[in-house]
Structure formats: structure tokens, C-alpha cells
# Entry
Amino acid sequence: MNETASNSFNIRKVIAASSVGTMIEWYDFYIFGMLSTTISAQFFPKGNPTAALLSTLAIFAAGFIVRPFGALVFGRLGDIIGRKYTFLLTLILMGGSTFLIGCVPSYESIGIAAPLLVLLLRLLQGLALGGEYGGAATYVAEHAPANKRGYYTSWIQTTATLGLFVALGVILLVKSNMPDARFNAEWGGWRYPFWISILLVGISIYIRLKMKESPMFSKLKAEGNTSVNPIKESFRHKGNFKMVLLALFGAVMGQGVIWYTGQFYAQNFLETKCFIGFEQSRTIMLWAIAFATPFFVFWGWLSDKIGRKWIMLMGMLLAIVTYRPIFNTFLKETNVVEWQKNNSVQPGVPKIVEDAIKSDRLVTTTTRVTLSNGSSFTEIKTDTAFSNPGQPAHQPHSTYKDKHLSPGTYWKFVALVFLLIVYVTMVYGPIAAFLVEMFPTKIRYTSMSLPYHIGNGVFGGLVPFIGLLLTTSFPADPLVGLWYPIGIAALCLLIGTIYLTNKIDKNVDD
Amino acid sequence: MNKIKRALGIIWLLLAPAVIYFLVDRAILHIDPAGKKDINNPVIWVIIIGIFTPIAIGLVIFGWYAFRGAYDHLPTKSDELDT
# Structure
């Protein structure tokens, strides 16, 4: 085998070993969020204030506080002892915590110890995730030739989305193979995705153990030039700290909100605002992710040719301009009143439930309605039957759920979600190379990890909460929640346009 | 371009305290022990304001650096970052 072919084979091994591990870490982190309803029922029962507090901490603290903290802890380790062993450690920590979450008995069995254990394990997950990405991106970038750094590191960038894809797929597969009662039971199917993790992590640890340390870090270590105190050098030297701030406010902050809006807010919007059924809302995401994922690699490759800056900023601009029209289309196309105007209606057999309220009766009529274009929905009509016939009549109240889209609308939604994820690929594909090139080898892991996890964990993670805050403050506009990602992306676009350079740093070996 | 970079520095300086003021104001408005939504939960507000305060301080420092011309020239070599 000649040298070029051997190098090419080695870099493929480096990318595969790093990407698989990072993808598994994302999978581990996501399944907790996706199964949060079942997990809440098992570990955080309603009505218990202590359990409710622990639940809040598990959901919010893991993303907002522990992830950036993990970036500092493992970033420091990675700059002192090396990339390879640090991101091996984060993988073991993440895999072990995930597996153990699947083994914790429920609140009914062991009481308050159950939510306490789950909280502890969830915090360990956040800590591990905070340390993983910087290590994997740095490790790959430090193996890559200067003219292919964007292309090679973009494979690492696919992992967050692929982790979501695998998590969605595994949960869908398990759920579709058993009745809901079995899935949600104490030792039911919801635990399988957690148990599967140990197998995936085992394989990844085996692969990563066979890898060598990054050549740049090895050289630095051999010369005795590694950093003694990476945190101090990263954040107390003005020259470096100003670049950390620029990375955060000029690139990662906007990337974080676009990443979260495209992948999570969109899915939540389809389920809770458009009321599309469980299976269709998930398969829409799965198709869109499958079609859009190759674009991470495309933008990474293109960034090696034309620079990173304008690709990322263009992704932000497109998101700013099109978010509201896209989400407005989701709302308009799932309006069942419009569906019924344009199609013939075949109502199913109504199921009527009557509840006595004092002397009156609350009548709930549930009907599955099918339309001629293949769409269907469940209509829940509530009406009050007054015992006093003289009581003035009023309009019954109707709500709609479990909407099933017609094939045409379904694929239109896939295309729109695909667009949202293409924006994610534009801002996210080149960013690892961009961050790696900003910082020197000896403090790279620490310096790039913190802004990345503040951008994604804090700015991105706040998308649903600020969305809810805005919706509560301005209830007349169902799309008002989008102003948060739009505003942050616009601010980041402005800062990035004015302060960032598009120059590719060819020499990161310093 | 450097003049714009410096002038905008003042905006970043002012934006940070405005964000914190907005968050504290919204927290006071929405925290409600009887409420059931996330938005009524004081713990979440404490976490969010707690994590956003150092970020806002970072934005103030970013604005100050920009105002003082620290971004007029971006480093091209790692030696320049050691200062």
C-alpha cells in the first residue's frame, strides 16, 4: 500500500472511530428527552413536590449548567493528558450512565431514591456530552490535511443529527412492536433503548482503544509544550478570550438556535401545535433527516474551497427569512376546517361519554373522520346538556387530534422540514473546522468546547422555554415563539458579518 | 469597517444589562407557586438567570473589547493569542 492510500485509510479510521462514538453519545442524550413522558411517570410522580423539583433539575440543569461545566472539566483534561483518553472517558461515562438509567427501579419500588438516582445519572450524561464533542472534533481536525479539514470534520457534525435519527428509529421500532401498556410498564419497552446503549458503547470503546493520540498533541507533549493550566490560558489571556467571545457571539450562538429549531422545535410544533399523530410526525422527521444529512458533508467540503464564514452566515440568513413562512404553512395545511371544505367527509362511529356535573351533563363525542384525499383526524366535541330546558343553548366546543396527513401534504411537510435541516447543515457542517482554526493546539479542546456548549446547550436549549414565554406573553400569534431563534440568529449574523474573517487558517499546528 | 466595529461595541455593552433586566422582569411577572407551567416555576428562572448572567457579562466584555479596537485586527498566528 503506498503512503497516500495508507494515510487515506488511516483518516477514514479516525473519522469512523470518532464519529460512531459521538453519534452514540448523542443517541444516549436524546433518548432521555424523547422518553420524558414515560420517565416522568416512572420516576417523577405528579403531586410530589420533591420529585417535581428533581425532574426540573434533570431536564434543565443537565443541558444548561452541566454541559458547559463538562466542557471545562474535560476540555482541561484533553489539553493536559490528551484527546484520545479524554474522549474515551466521556464515552464510558455517557454509556454507563445511560445503561444505568434503564436499570433504576421506579418511584413506586424504591421511593425518592429513584428520582435522585435518575437526576444524578442525567447530570453525568450532561457532563460527558460537554466533554465529548470538543475532543472528537479536535481529534479529527488534528489528523486532517489543511485542505480537507472542513470535509473531514463535517463527518463529526453529522453525528448529532444521526444520533437523533437512531434514537427516533429505535424508539419507534420498540414502540411499534408492543402495546402501549407493555411499553410504559415499570420494566417495559421504554427501557430497551437505554439497555441497547451499553452494546453500542462497548463497540465504540473497542474501536477507540485501537486509535493513536492526535499527532499534533503527541508532538506538543514530546516537546514538553502542553499547557499547564488550559482554563487560565483560555479565559484569562485577553488575546485568546476575545476569540472565545467572538466564537460564541459571532457563530455558535446563532448555530445553536438554528440547530434546535430545525430538529426539535419543528418536531414539537408538528405534534403540539399542528396535532399530527405520533407516527407521522416522527416519520416526517426521519425522512427529512435522512435526505438532509449528506449536506453536512457537502457544506464542510465546500467550506474548504470558499471559507467557512459565509456558508454559516447564509444558513442563518435563510432561517431568519423563511422560518415564519414555513411554520405558518405547517399551521395552515393542518387546518381541518379547510380540509373539510375541499374534500368529502366520511365520519366514523362516534363514541359518546357523558359526565354528570351537578344536575347537568357534559357530553363528549369522539369521532374519527376520514376524508376523500386520504387524510383523517379525531374530532372531540364537548357539549353541555342542561337539565333546565330553558337554559340558552351554546355552540359545542371541538378540538382535533391525531391528524393523519394526505400523501401530498405529508411529502410537502417532509420537504419543508428537510429545508429546516438543510439550514442546520449550513451552520453546523463547517463549524468544527472553524472553531479548531481559531485556537492553538495546546488549549484547543478547552477553548472551543465552552463556546460550543454555551451556544448549543444554553442558547439552543432555551428555544422551547423562551418560545413558551413569548406565547404566554403574546397569545394572539401562534408563531410568536419563533422570534427568539430569529432574533438570536439575526444578532449572530450581524456580529459574524462584521467581526469574523473568512480566511482559512492553513496552519493549525501551532 | 473598524469604525463600525468599535461603534457597535457600545450597543453590545448596553444590550447585555437590557437582556438581564428583561429576564428578571419576566421572572417576577410569571413566577407563580400555584401555576403549573414551566414558566411559573421559580427553579427554572433561577437556573436561566443564573446561567445567562455570566453570558451577559461576556457580552459586556465583548462590547468593551470591540469598543477598544481589540477586533480591528484578528490574530493570524497562535503567538498573538498568548497576550
